């Protein structure tokens, strides 16, 4: 069928030709970071993966940002400032192209909106104590990638340390996911994205056995994870 010759065309036609800027592409992108060790490949394939369903740059740039966060978490970057430096450097370049600028303007946002929110995350971390209402006001908890991917990244970085709203008995990965749930809104997607970053950083040791067993086909998922690990470490 002629309609199948360009697999990206249906996504471009959505929302009167504006394309989706939701967070679905970002929610599913973590596997890209687990398969490709080179940061340029991570950005390239994260964008392609998201463009199948999210043609607006605020959708696929959110997927790129999420993939980058998993990438740097997997590399064990534990310094929060350096982690954000990496993301800001990459995203300021990603968001500099004409389509990113025009899409942001069309939707009423400033230039480089993801980069701006990453800088807001740095301010929040420097403040230390930030109310949930301030997090929601500045970062959001909605279904748009812009209003959820930065929130997931903040949740991961904030929950490297204890949080008064989360029991001390929880480890860092559990704390990250529980904090996302406390924020409300699109909790399943935000917690999934933050959990992917935290999982890449902390490893399976922090995933409680009861959590694993409550997930559908968790044993098959662990086999797939082992396969991705082997692929990641293949020589170039």
From TrEMBL:
Reactions that this protein is recorded to catalyse: alpha-NAD(+) + H2O = ADP-D-ribose + nicotinamide + H(+)
Keyword hit for Magnesium: yes
UniProt superkingdom: Eukaryota
GO cellular component: chromosome; mitochondrial matrix; nucleus
UniProt binding sites for Mg(2+): 186, 188-189
Pfam families: ADP_ribosyl_GH
Protein name: ADP-ribosylhydrolase ARH3
């Amino acid at each position: 069928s002629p309609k199948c010759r360009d697999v990206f065309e249906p996504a471009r036609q959505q929302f009167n030709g504006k394309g989706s800027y939701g967070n679905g592409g970002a929610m599913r992108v973590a596997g890209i970071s687990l398969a490709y060790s080179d940061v340029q490949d991570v950005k390239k394939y994260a964008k392609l993966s998201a463009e199948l369903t999210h043609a607006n740059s605020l959708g696929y740039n959110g997927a790129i940002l999420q993939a980058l966060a998993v990438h740097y978490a997997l590399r064990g970057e534990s310094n929060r400032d350096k982690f954000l430096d990496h993301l800001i450097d990459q995203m300021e370049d990603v968001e500099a192209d004409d389509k990113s600028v025009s899409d942001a303007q069309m939707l009423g946002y400033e230039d480089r909106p993801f980069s701006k929110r990453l800088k807001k995350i740095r301010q929040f971390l420097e403040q230390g104590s930030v109310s949930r209402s301030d997090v929601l006001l500045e970062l959001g908890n909605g279904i748009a990638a812009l209003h959820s991917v930065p929130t997931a990244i903040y949740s991961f970085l904030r929950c490297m340390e204890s949080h008064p709203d989360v029991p001390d008995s929880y480890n860092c990965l559990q704390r990250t996911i529980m904090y996302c749930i406390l924020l409300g809104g699109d909790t399943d997607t935000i917690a999934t994205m933050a959990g992917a970053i935290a999982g890449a950083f902390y490893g399976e040791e922090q995933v409680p056995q009861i959590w694993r067993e409550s997930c559908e086909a968790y044993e098959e998922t662990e086999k797939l994870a082992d396969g991705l690990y082997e692929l990641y470490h293949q020589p170039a």
